[in-house]
Each structure stands twice: as C-alpha cells, then as structure tokens.
Design a protein that fits this description.
The chain is an alpha/beta fold. Helix content is 53%, strand content 8%. The strands form four sheets. A four-stranded antiparallel β-sheet has the order 1-2-4-3. The chain has a four-stranded parallel β-sheet with strand order 6-5-10-11, sandwiched between helices. Helix 1 (4-18) crosses helix 3 (54-64) and helix 2 packs across helix 3. The protein binds arginine. Arginine (ARG) is lined by residues 118, 121-123, 158, 160, 314, 317, 332, 334. Arginine is lined by residues 118, 121-123, 158, 160, 314, 317, 332, 334.
Length: 578
C-alpha cells in the first residue's frame, strides 16, 4: 500500500520533471499542522541553486502538479514553501484500505537485508546493571522494527565471557570463595571475590603474578580453570536469562567473546599477510596512516606477551558475521565510549575488503535524579534485575488503586506489562544520543508521553468493545465469510484527524528505522493517543446512530490495533484491562 507521503513525493517528482526543473524534491510531513499535512521546500532549494525567485518557482511547480485526487489546492507560503492538505475523502478511502490490511498499511521494504544486530552484550561475572537497559531495549526495538519491515534479522548477544578479569576471578575462586554465599546469591559472591582479589592485587605483586598465572593456565586449557570459568559463565547466564525473561528479549545467537578465541591467531596472521597489520616493538599493530582521524591511534591486536585484545575479537567477529552468517549489515548497539574502538574495527574491515554496512549505533547514559550516572546509595551500579522488579512492584500499586477487583493473577500480569513497559518506553521515547534522567514518577504517570498513558488508551478502547458486546470483525479474512467493512463516514474534524494519523502509521515506522530512532515511533503513538482522546471526547461512539456508530467503532478498533502493533514494535505489551 502506498502511503500519502510516497504518493505525493512521486507526484512532486513528476511535476518537477515536467517543469524541466529537477528529478525529485524532498517532501516531508508538515512540522506545523496549521500549514497542512505535508510540505516541500524544493522551490527554495532550486531557487538558491539557480538564482531564481523561490515563490515564482513554486508557482511554476504548482502549475505542473496534479494532486487533486488527494489534496486541497496546494498553496505557496512564506518564502516559497508548498503546503499540502489532504482531502477528507482521500483520508476516508485510505483508512478503509488500512482497515483491511493486516500490516496496517505498512509496506515491506523493497530492499530486504540480512542484518546482524549486536545488542545487550553484557560481561559475565558482573550483574547486568541499569547501564545495560539502553543497549538491550534499543537493540530489541530496532530488531523488531527491522523484522516487521521485511528485513532478515539475526539477534546476537556478544557476551563478554573471556578476558583478563578471569585471572582474578579464578584466583578469588580458589582462595576466597564462600560456597554458602555462592549458593545464596551466585553473582554477588563472584563479584565479591573479584573485587577483593582486585584490591589485594593492587597492593601485592605476588597476588598480581598469581592472577596472571591463572589466566595463562586458563588460556592454555587447564582443566580446573576451565571448569571454574564454565561455572562462572553459567551462573552469570542465569542472571542474564532472568532479566531477558522479564524484558521479553530473545536472541538468535549468543556468540560471546570466547566463541572467537580459537580464531584469533588466524585473524592476526591474515592481517599480517595482507599488510594491514605489522610487527611493532614485539606487538602486532594496525596503523591507520591514511585515516587522518585515526592516524595517531594505532590498534594493538596481539600484545607483546602473545595475548589478544577486545579488538582482535571484534575483528574476528566481523569476519564471522560477514563470511559465515552472510550479513549485509551489522548494527552494534553499544554506548558512545566505544566510538573510537568501532571506528578502528570498521576501518580494518574496510581494508580487508568488506563492503557490509557496519554501523555503530550509540546512545547516551541513564542518569539518576542528581544528574549523575545512576548508582545505588552505596555508589554501586543499580542491578537491572532489581530495577525491573521494582518497576513491577510500583506498577502493581497503580493497578491496585485503579482496579482493586481484579484477580491476583490478573494484577500480576498487568503490573508486569505496565512496569516493564514503562521502563522500556522511558528509554525509547528519548532521543538516543542524549542522556536521560531515570524517574519512576515520570515513567509511571498515567498522563503524558508514557507507556501507561498509551496502554490506558488501548484499554479504554477495549472496554468500549466489551460494553458494545459485539464481536468485532477486525481481519481481512472476514470478507471470506461475507462480512463487508462498513463504509466509513468521516464528518467531524476529530474523526478526520484521527483517521489521518492512523494512515500515517505506515510513514512513521520506516522513518523510525532510518535514523535508528524509536522515539519517532513513540512520538507518533503519543500523538495518536491524543488524537484518539480528542475524538472520543467530541464524538460519541456507542450512542450515535448508524452508520456513524459503526464507522466510529471501526476507528476505535483501528486505533487499538495501531497502538498494540506500535507498542509491540517497541517490545511493549498491552493489557486488556488495567
Ligand atoms: N561486552 C561489551 C561491554 O560491556 C560490549 C560488547 C559490544 N559488542 C561488541 N561486538 N564489541 O562493553
């Protein structure tokens, strides 16, 4: 199904071509509804290029523009903008098509790619903390959106399960472990022995050397150390899995760093042979002499002692993803502090001849109310698991207040949807590059740009249908059983406005993926819920006469479907009641 935006963009291109002016011009959604629904600044751009008067150019374009079937007469405004306002009958027609489409009007991409998304990727022997929310939730949402748009997505958890910290963990395990504590809270005990070893190593060179020896033994495949390592990884994974279950996150692959361990010597040899890496002071190093930005930032891929680095693993990871997984694109959803690392990795990949589209999708930090990195009172990272459990607990209070008569089971289920949804939404509704302040009050508020507000709009609609007591035909398959959609009759402004927004779902979903910006989708859903409330206030639904009643019910139903699908693309569930 073609969106209004695409249709108008095509018509604009035709007009530009017929006027002999250009091939295409950009057409966007209007930034201010007072100026209509879409706009183009092409006359301004061309005016500058050609040294001509933009309003005159705009008039010339208009004289070639044929959009009568969808728009009111377009108008030239200001310095030469052309504004488009959709006609109600065109909106009505499109809404009817959307109602019958089980993709809600969202077209699949014509250029489907196989995309590996590397997100979450926590380190073992440490609990997941609040800092992991962003990568995990953002990566999951991007995966869902990409998949819905027709891409083939491979979700990969690049777990940090191999590295120098294991020398200390193993030393601690052998010398400091409290088995009972391990049973009570495995991860806390592993963190304790790690920290204590770290502290001892800082002041005692003998401990330092002992840790190094443990690491060497592990890397050489020593049975005892491998067993300890395995146990630590398994215990950490249990903690991760618990968090993933709460968040509803699933991975197709969990190829952690250890997965690449055996490949590293080969990778280094290849880079040496290809002349991409060289030996420098006993280490193997990649220099970026042709890249001004990286010229003074060489990358060590094999240390003087023969050990490999985080970067070596990532080079091996690119090889694997491109050669074996056949990825067209790899998206790394990883915080901004690793910007330099990925620039180096991508430069190496380019020199190896890889053409896959490698992207580092960065994001800002989660801050506490004091605007500093969010920490517990004792200055520790906030464990993600506790944070999510707290979200559910707080949401439960809201449910108790709103709807005390629900069963215990229902309350638990709804509280989980609201609590987890609120945390995810608070994150996704921020522009990803900026830091944001984590605030329970704000994210759980029933009003404003929050998950509970949108969930509440959905619930409200569902209750209309419960009240109506009608089995509502919502699927195109209904036609097979002889059900014909009622002709919509949009008369009142709030109805037309709501219908128009519903048609635009198809425009916002791809838009959100283009800039890796789920906040474009959250903003859209928020506006949609606002339009719905305005409509619901102005236009009685169940009490109105036919055919208006059916028409309005259809709008309600479509709104619920778009809210559900839109939130679903963000990994957020909707309750039927709350
Ligand atoms: N484990 C890393 C960290 O916690 C993130 C890994 C990101 N992915 C990658 N391929 N390097 O910082």
């Amino acid at each position: 199904m073609e969106t209004f935006q695409l249709l108008l963009a095509k018509r604009l291109s035709d007009a530009l071509a017929n006027a002999g002016l250009a091939e295409t011009g950009e057409l966007t959604q209007a930034t201010d509804p007072r100026f209509g629904d879409y706009q183009t600044n092409v006359a301004l751009v061309l005016g500058k290029q050609r040294g001509e008067n933009p309003p005159a150019l705009a008039e010339k374009i208009l004289s070639h523009l044929d959009v009568d079937d969808v728009c009111e007469l377009p108008a030239v405004a200001g310095a030469g903008f052309i504004n488009f306002t959709l006609r109600p009958d065109a909106i009505e027609k499109k809404t009817r098509e959307v109602l019958r489409d089980n993709r809600l009007g969202v077209p699949e991409t014509a250029s489907s790619q196989r995309i590996v998304i590397d997100f979450g990727s926590p380190n073992v022997a440490k609990p997941m903390h609040v800092g992991h929310i962003r990568s995990t939730v953002l990566g999951d949402a991007l995966a869902r959106i990409a998949q819905f748009l027709g891409h083939e997505v491979i979700r990969d958890n690049h777990i940090g399960d191999w590295g120098t910290q294991f020398g200390m963990v193993i030393y601690g395990w052998k010398n400091l472990l409290d088995r009972q504590a391990l049973q009570r809270n495995p991860l806390a005990e592993i963190v304790r022995i790690y920290k204590e070893t770290n502290a001892r190593a800082a002041s005692d060179p003998e401990v330092r050397e002992a840790c190094r020896q443990e690491l060497v033994k592990l890397q050489a495949g020593d049975k005892e150390n491998i067993d300890i390592w395995n146990e630590c990884v398994a215990l950490s994974m249990q903690d991760f899995e618990h968090v993933y279950k709460l968040l509803g996150i699933h991975y197709d692959l969990q190829c952690g760093e250890s997965f690449y361990h055996d490949r590293l010597p080969g990778v280094v040899d290849c880079l040496l042979k290809a002349g991409i890496a060289e030996i420098s002071e006993g280490a193997v190093v990649v220099f970026f002499r042709d890249n001004p930005e990286l010229a003074d930032k060489p990358l060590i891929i094999r240390k003087r002692d023969g050990g490999f680095n985080y970067a070596t693993t990532d080079i091996a990871t690119v090889d694997y993803r491109v050669n074996e997984l056949k990825a067209d694109a790899v998206w790394y959803v990883v915080g901004a502090p690793q910007t330099l690392h990925f620039k180096q990795i991508f430069d190496v990949a380019r020199r190896e001849g890889y053409t896959a589209d490698l992207r580092h999708i960065i994001f800002g930090s989660v801050l506490g109310e004091d605007r500093k990195l969010m920490k517990t009172r004792s200055g520790e990272n906030v464990p993600l698991r506790e944070l999510l459990e707290e979200a559910c607990k707080r949401a439960r209070k809201i449910v108790e207040e709103k709807n005390p008569n629900l069963s215990e089971e229902e309350k638990t289920d709804i509280a989980e949807k609201i609590g987890i949804g609120a945390v995810k939404y608070a994150d996704l509704s921020q522009y990803r590059m900026t830091d944001y302040i984590f605030s329970w009050e704000k994210m759980l508020a029933l009003h404003g740009n929050t998950a509970p507000y949108l969930q509440n709009a959905y619930v409200r609609i569902r209750s209309i249908f419960r009240k109506a007591g009608e089995s509502w035909h919502r699927h195109p398959a209904d036609e097979e059983i002889g059900w014909k959609p009622m002709p919509l009759c949009l008369a009142e402004l709030p109805e037309i406005d709501l219908a128009k927004r519903l048609c635009q779902f198809a425009e916002f979903v791809p838009h959100a993926l283009n800039g890796f910006r789920p906040n474009i989708l959250t903003n859209y859903l928020f506006e949609l819920a606002n339009s719905f409330h305005a409509f619901y206030e102005a236009c009685p639904v169940l009490k109105s006469e036919e055919p208006r009643r059916s028409s309005r019910l259809a709008l309600c139903d479509l709104t619920a479907q778009v809210l559900q699908r839109g939130l679903g693309l963000l990994g957020i569930k909707v309750p039927e009641k709350m």
